[in-house]
Amino acid sequence: MRRSFRKSRPTKYDTHLPADLEAERVKIEGYAREFGLDFYDVIFEVLDWNQINEVAAYGGFPNRYPHWRFGMEYEQLSKSYAYGLSKIYEMVINTDPCYAYLLYSNGMVDQKLVMAHVYAHCDFFKNNLFFAHTNRKMMDEMANHKTRVLRYIDEYGMDRVESFIDSCLAIEDLIDHHAHAIRRRAPAGRELEGPRRPIRKLKINHQYMDKYINPQEFMEEQRKAIEDEMQLEKKFPEHPEKDVLLFLLDYAPLEKWERDILSIIREEAYYFAPQGLTKIMNEGWASYWHSKIMTERALTDSEVIDYADHHSGTVAMSARNFNPYKVGIELFRDVEERWNTGRFGKAYEECTDMVAKANWDLKLGLGRQKIFEVRKLYNDVMFIDEFLTPEFCEKHKLFIYSYNISSDQYEIASREFSKIKQQLLFQLTNFGHPIINVVDGNFRNRGELLLKHSHEGRELKHDYACETLKRLFNIWKRPVAVETLSDGVPTLISYDGTEVKEERV
After folding, report:
1. Nearest CA-CA partner of 473 in 502, 504, 448
2. Are 473 and 480 in contact (CB under 8 A)?
3. Which tens digit of pLDDT belongs to each residue from 38-90?
4. In the prediction, which pLDDT does 374 show?
5. Could you write out the DSSP letters of every residue in 222-271?
6. d(CA 178, CA 243)
7. Lowest model confidence (mean pLDDT) among 194-198, 329-333, 360-364
8. Order of strands across the sheet with 90-93?
9. Which of 9, 136, 357, 457 is least enclosed, having the fewest CB within 10 Å?
10. Is the model's pLDDT at 2 over the cut of 70?
């Protein structure tokens, strides 16, 4: 039976699935392609709960460099599963081919749902613009990273290498998530010229005396002195650098093995970055299509109740819990309906007849085309910014909630659409992390490193900032500082290797 399915769609990859799961996989893949999804080949593996927790702790990869963080995450996942607090149904990795893991203990309806979900994820990985520059051979690259780190551990010792990895991981999110689309620095080796200064000559009374009063050697010395002076005055870097890790790779006084490890951390950070940029869209897209495939094609009559129960649990949302699955799937459905009915554009927006607006239907039928276009070109910030509407927020009860101490409950603090949208965008921009730039690599003319926090209404957590500066010092090996706002006052937090100082500027 398994061979007959393989003949229907030849593939060079072995899925390692039992015959019954393989039969369902072939059906689900066919349904996905029937709906127009386009994805790389998918390799499925069936793991038990302990194995899937191990893989999840490694970020979905079977091999990562050794570090205590992965062990900590494994313990957390294992305890959460043991106490019934959470359960990993599936994982999928953005590679070519894609690798996906199924939980052995899942029932057949869950396995079918998960496979449909996975194929939609793989379609998103392959076609979304923000994944276009990711390394599709990251499975092999992760194994290579592990080998290199193990070699350094053998040579320099576990404690020294692990301590340096700790320092790198403390700043792993200080990258430029849009670096693939925006070039923020000049190409390497290119010098940006500024205004030239005239070379100072000794005063002469007669022109013929010039070559004797100002000989070539003297003029060369003067030119060199002016260049050195201008170099000292030149801003370094010339413009704020958002990719702090790249700046450290280029200019920090690192040993060869340290520089290699920092490059590994940076490479992996950039690999995972698009997943953070598209969390709502990615999960919404996968949920949209697993719902479509299951309800219109794959479900049997006996599986409907189980599917409805598990799907509803996936998209449940409360005042305390923002669920990207729920927001994503409903917003995709809303976009599809709006473009099917023509509820967009100037005519619709300017319509003042509420009855006509409520019954607006131009029967354009452009919804499916539009959501595929959105899947290709948008990230979460763009998605929310362009397609979130007041009607959508009201329909799905998207409000701003706050905790009331007296009633011990979360209550609606605001129903205003602009505030709801602003808060969502604020949370999504830079993943909600502070925006940090390198502004001076020669601060105080002493080779110190100065960072600047772009204050957008959210202050730095003081304890986090202090610990991060300590880790950064281990990489820069000279005093480091960050400029921020504290209670509205410009403040400089610095670390010189012995103590943290805070001063008003």
Report:
1. 448
2. yes
3. 999 999 999 888 888 899 999 989 889 999 999 999 999 888 888 877 777 78
4. 97
5. HHHHHHHHHHHHS-SSSS-BS-HHHHHHHHS---HHHHHHHHHHHHHHHH
6. 10
7. 194-198
8. 42-47, 98-103, 90-93
9. 457
10. no
Name the amino acid, one letter, at 346.
K
Using CB atoms within 10 Å of the CB of residue 168, give its burial: 0 to 12 exposed, 13 to 18 middle, 19+ buried.
buried
Question: Which of 35, 46, 39 has its CA nearest to residue 11?
Answer: 39
Q: Render pLDDT for 244-281 as a digit per residue (tens, 0 to 9).
A: 999 999 999 999 999 999 999 999 999 999 999 999 99
Q: Which two tokens stand for residue 461?
A: 């957590």
User: Residue 18 has what DSSP assignment?
Assistant: -
195 pLDDT more than 50? no
DSSP helix/strand/coil, 422: helix
Match 């900032």 to its residue by tokens.
465
- Write 289-293 long-range contacts (CB < 8 A, 24+): 289/32, 289/35, 289/37, 289/116, 289/117, 289/119, 289/120, 289/123, 290/113, 290/114, 290/116, 290/117, 290/120, 291/329, 292/35, 293/28, 293/31, 293/32, 293/35, 293/116
292-297-298-302 Cα dihedral, nearest 10 degrees: 100
Contacts 24+ apart (CB under 8 A), 290-298: 290/113, 290/114, 290/116, 290/117, 290/120, 291/329, 292/35, 293/28, 293/31, 293/32, 293/35, 293/116, 294/112, 294/113, 294/116, 297/27, 297/31, 297/34, 298/24, 298/27, 298/28, 298/31, 298/112, 298/116
* Core vs surface per residue 433-442: b (16+ CB within 10 A) or e: ebebbbbbbb
Q: What is the rounded average pLDDT of the residues 144-167?
A: 95
Whether residue 323 contacts residue 316, with contact meaning beta carbons closer than 8 Å, is answered with yes
How far apart are alpha carbons 286 and 438 in whole angstroms? 38
Q: How far is CA 15 from CA 11, 18, 23, 46, 110, in A?
A: 10, 9, 11, 9, 18
Q: Do the beta carbons of residue 23 and residue 5 sit within 8 Å?
A: yes
Between 128-137, 178-187, 491-500, the lowest mean confidence (pLDDT) is in 178-187
